[in-house]
Amino acid sequence: MFLRFSIRVPKDRVLFRYGQSRELVAKAAQAIVDQEFARFLLWVDGSHNPRSGLAPFRYTTARRGKTLDIVALGQEAVEQLLTKGHMLSSALAREFGTSPCDGREIGRCSITLGRTPTGYRIPRMIIQKYHYEEKFRAAEREHKSGNPSVILCDHVAQVIGRDLVRQAELMAVDIPEEIQIGNVVLDDLKPVKVVSGRYNLSAAVRFSMSHILRGPWAAGHLAARGYGRILMTYSR
Question: 59, 92, 107 — which closes off a domain?
Fold first, then answer.
């Protein structure tokens, strides 16, 4: 189960970069009376440190940055946002200087076997963490020189498979064991700043898979900030 919680953004506050939606919610959430809900929404503990485990909220945008979207994954996150989302709507309305207004869409995520491999793309995926995985620097240089790195492509396939399983477990969705991910193509490799002095490597990703995804799915690091959204590609 997932819930898409949408709030219209004023014309002068259009959201144009990754992480901006979450930053805006974090700022507005300081005014929410129920700070336990605010911390759950931002997936931080009482000291505002990130909690362990997969964050059940994804902060994205829609309509070319004119709408702030929060995708809640799993029963607990959906129930919390359904019952207390009005607090966030009011907080963001005060931030924008507008009247409270939000849209809500409930749906289900699924993964089913397709007749033929299905193509997918990820506009911007955080594919590895430099801080922990220095060995990928050489692979990055190789890839940028025009020689597709098998090490990087295999790593990305493993991360996608791992994160599909993690999200499925969060939502109590049955996931097949025989999922096959292949034809991984990485383009536009570039660093993404996480905190001061620390960068992660990102890429535009294309791949094919034996199964069909329905609903919002994401893979890679910093998915809560909007990175890693998996989109189906369609043939013309």
Answer: 107
Which single residue is written with the structure tokens 């905190």?
195
Question: Which residues constitute the domain of residue 89?
Answer: 2-107
| Residues 204, 208, 210, 213, Cα dihedral to 10° | 40
The residue length of the chain stands at: 236
User: Could you tell me if 120 and 214 lie in one domain?
Assistant: yes
Query: Which of the 8 DSSP states describes residue 98?
Result: S
Q: What residues in the chain have per-residue pLDDT under 50?
A: none
Same-domain check for residues 119 and 89: no
SS3 229: strand
SS3 content of the chain, % helix, strand, coil (to 5): 30, 35, 30
Per the CB < 8 A criterion, the answer to whether 224 and 59 are in contact is yes
pLDDT for 236 equals 54
What integer pLDDT is reported at residue 131 of this predicted model? Answer: 63
**DSSP H helix total and E strand total for the chain:** 5, 8
Whole-model pTM: value is 0.91
